[in-house]
Amino acid sequence: FYAAVVYLPLADVMSFYMAGPIYVAALSHLLLGEKVGWRRWMAILVGFCGVLIMLKPSSAAFSLSSTFALAGSISFAFAIILNRRLRGTSDTSLVTWQTIGTLLVGGFLTIGNWQTPSSLDFGAMLLLGIVSCGAHLMITRALKLAPASTLAPLHY
Question: Apex CA 148: angle with CA 38 and CA 137, to 5°?
Fold first, then answer.
């Protein structure tokens, strides 16, 4: 997702990102067997149309670079579905493994391009980590309490 921001206008990248709830609803039906009624589909489609009207994506959204944004959106949907599938696992365990996975991938991507962060950058990253951890805990809890297709429209 973030790689797409380098190549595409932000409005185009966000249009792809905001398609995530559509993928969540479709995948929750196919992979989790959740019932997705017409009202939920309408809520998702109305939300997505509103995002498209607001962002006004350009023709650049339909380029090879857009595959980064599309892959990010679909990855988001699979992450939500996987969290829902693992709802019997403790919240802290799920968030811990997500964090470890993110750190490993992020660390791998810095090989050959490492820059030592300043004190301000380090503080900002620490704050981002704390807020992200809290957000992941809340998302994980929500996915235990409600079907993914119910929560998908709330993404907007």
Answer: 155
H helical segments located in 2-90? 2-7, 10-17, 20-32, 38-55, 66-85
Q: Is the pTM of this model over 0.90?
A: no
At a CB cut-off of 8 Å and minimum separation 6, what does 146 contact?
A: none
Give the chain's length.
156
Render pLDDT for 116-130 as a digit per residue (tens, 0 to 9): 999 999 999 999 999
Residues 6+ apart with CB under 8 A from 7: 63, 65, 68
The amino acid that residue 151 corresponds to is L
Does residue 131 carry a pLDDT above 90?
yes
- Tokens, residue 83: 């969290």
How would DSSP label each residue in 90-103?
A: -HHHHHHHHHHHHH
The closest alpha carbon to 99, from 133, 139, 73, 123, belongs to: 133
Determine the Cα–Cα distance for residues 40 and 61; give it in Å rounded to an integer: 26
pLDDT band at 84 (very low <50, low <70, confident <90, very high): very high
- What the block records as the tokens of 21 is 């709830």
